[in-house]
From TrEMBL:
Name of the protein in question: DUF4175 domain-containing protein
UniProt entry keywords in alphabetical sequence: Membrane, Transmembrane, Transmembrane helix
Membrane-spanning intervals of the chain: 30-53, 60-77
Origin superkingdom: Bacteria
Natural source organism: Rhodanobacter lycopersici
């Protein structure tokens, strides 16, 4: 924990007016953005596959984009999106 705090406070004067933003940007610089991008792409691809299989392609992509693997569970628990039933015509 001390190492993380030291990396976040690197080059920051705690009494400076913009110290919060400097620490904030230092923390964001430590995030592994490349790995997060590829993992998210994998989640969306699996969500698209599950959505296609369940008859809800775009819904599968959306749920996987927003929730990742939890979106797969949401998609799995929703009913299949097959052919919509048409009600019988009204009598004349």
């Amino acid at each position: 924990m001390h190492e993380l705090l030291a990396r976040a406070m690197q080059g920051v004067d705690p009494d400076a007016p913009g110290a919060f933003w400097h620490v904030f940007l230092n923390l964001w610089a430590m995030v592994p953005w490349g790995a997060l991008f590829w993992w998210n792409l994998l989640f969306v691809a699996v969500g698209a596959l599950l959505g296609w299989w369940r008859g809800r392609l775009w819904e599968g992509i959306a749920w996987a984009w927003v929730l990742g693997p939890i979106g797969w569970i949401v998609l799995w628990l929703r009913p299949r999106g097959g052919a919509r039933t048409v009600p019988p015509p009204l009598p004349r």
